[in-house]
């Protein structure tokens, strides 16, 4: 049960999205078509690899589930360590800051991988099912592979577009303007975590998040909803779900901020013929810039961890 609890907490985006799909698509009925691309996508968003197995891609199904299982095991392992910082110890919302130590950082790697492989698995199952049979769809089938999405943040083709570099320039200017203010968000690290450790995490974990979230919320949801409801209502639906999947805890966006960002990412997705690469690039660098700012605004901190024998 503890494993199920951990999965639901760290995959709240998947849980909330799956519930939204059940409500909106009426897919809870006994006559749901289990061969439909949307069903394969939802299946892999609940159990990574399940949609791939439904598509007959058993080696890929095993790989997705294996990565997920190992990452959940790693998260459980680090969460059970005595110096792991839970949310109450880690986040100081009143002072707009958080604390991190080595154990909690390692937990973050594992939990982030579990979440984002789940999101990507949902997209990949949907993509492959659409590519096998795209009959009856108004929108083009998604085609981008994991490698296509992974290199997108470093592609000059995307970074040179005004729709990418103008929002990034505005974001960078705002972060620079408020970097030394008392309200600027900061990450304070224990003595066993270096600034370099945080920068490496910032660059690598945000790669996973940008790929996973854009693949699932745009490559899967925005495509499917736009096909069902038209571009306008499809965009509104997918961006609303994206907003609901964000809590605002720590440095993450709150629901309104995420919904507005999701609307822009979704518009880019539609504008680009329902291809996701530019959104991945923009999403990645927005998150990285925020992380750089938070690391700069933080510093070293002595962390006192008290464990009572209840």
Outline the structure in words:
The protein is mainly α and 310 residues long. It has one domain. The chain has 14 helices and four strands. The protein has helices at 2-10, 12-25, 37-46, 50-54, 58-79, 87-90, 102-132, 146-151, 156-159, 162-177, 195-229, 231-244, 255-271, 277-297; strands at 91-92, 97-100, 186-189, 299-300. Mean pLDDT is 89; it is low at 1-5 and 305-310.
Please describe the topology of this protein.
Blueprint: H1 2-10, H2 12-25, H3 37-46, H4 50-54, H5 58-79, H6 87-90, E1 91-92, E2 97-100, H7 102-132, H8 146-151, H9 156-159, H10 162-177, E3 186-189, H11 195-229, H12 231-244, H13 255-271, H14 277-297, E4 299-300
Parallel strand pairs: 2-3, 3-4
Antiparallel strand pairs: 1-2
Helix pairs in contact: 1-2, 3-7, 5-7, 7-11, 10-14, 11-12, 11-13, 11-14, 12-13, 13-14
Characteristic terms for this protein:
14 helices, 310 residues, disordered C terminus, mainly alpha, disordered N terminus
Number of continuous helical runs: 14
> What is the N-to-C succession of helices and strands?
HHHHHHEEHHHHEHHHHE
Structural class: mainly alpha
How much of the residues is beta strand, in percent? under 5%
Q: Which value, in Å, is the CA radius of gyration?
A: 20 Å
Number of domains: 1
Q: Which stretches of 5+ consecutive residues score pLDDT under 50?
A: 1-5, 305-310
Order of strands across the main sheet:
1-2-3-4
Largest sheet report: 4 strands, mixed
**What is the terminal separation in angstroms?**
20 Å
Shape: globular
Report helical residue fraction: 55-70%
Number of separate strands: 4
Kindly report the average pLDDT value. 89
């Amino acid at each position: 049960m503890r494993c199920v609890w951990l999965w639901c907490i760290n995959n709240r985006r998947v849980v909330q999205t799956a519930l939204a799909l059940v409500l909106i698509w009426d897919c809870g009925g006994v006559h749901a078509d289990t061969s439909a691309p949307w069903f394969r996508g939802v299946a892999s968003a609940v159990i990574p690899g399940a949609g791939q197995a439904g598509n007959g891609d058993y080696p890929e199904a095993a790989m997705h589930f294996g990565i997920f299982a190992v990452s959940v095991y790693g998260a459980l392992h680090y969460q059970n360590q005595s110096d792991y910082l839970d949310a109450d110890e880690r986040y100081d919302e009143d002072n707009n800051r958080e604390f991190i130590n080595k154990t909690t950082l390692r937990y973050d790697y594992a939990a982030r991988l579990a979440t984002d492989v789940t999101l990507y698995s949902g997209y990949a199952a949907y993509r492959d099912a659409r590519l096998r049979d795209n009959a009856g769809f108004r929108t083009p089938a998604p085609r981008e592979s994991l490698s296509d999405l992974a290199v997108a943040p470093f592609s000059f083709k995307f970074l040179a577009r005004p729709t990418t570099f103008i929002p990034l320039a505005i974001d960078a200017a705002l972060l620079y303007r408020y970097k030394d203010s008392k309200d600027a968000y900061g990450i304070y690290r224990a003595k066993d975590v270096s600034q370099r450790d945080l920068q490496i995490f910032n660059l690598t974990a945000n790669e996973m998040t940008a790929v996973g979230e854009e693949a699932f919320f745009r490559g899967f949801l925005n495509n499917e909803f736009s096909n069902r409801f038209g571009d306008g209502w499809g965009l509104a639906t997918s961006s609303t779900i994206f907003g609901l999947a964000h809590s605002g805890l720590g440095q993450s966006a709150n629901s309104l901020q995420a919904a507005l960002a999701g609307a822009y990412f979704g518009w880019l997705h539609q504008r680009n013929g329902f291809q996701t690469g530019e959104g991945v690039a923009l999403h990645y660098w927005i998150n990285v810039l925020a992380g750089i700012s938070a690391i700069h605004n933080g510093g070293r901190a002595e962390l006192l961890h008290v464990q009572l024998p209840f």
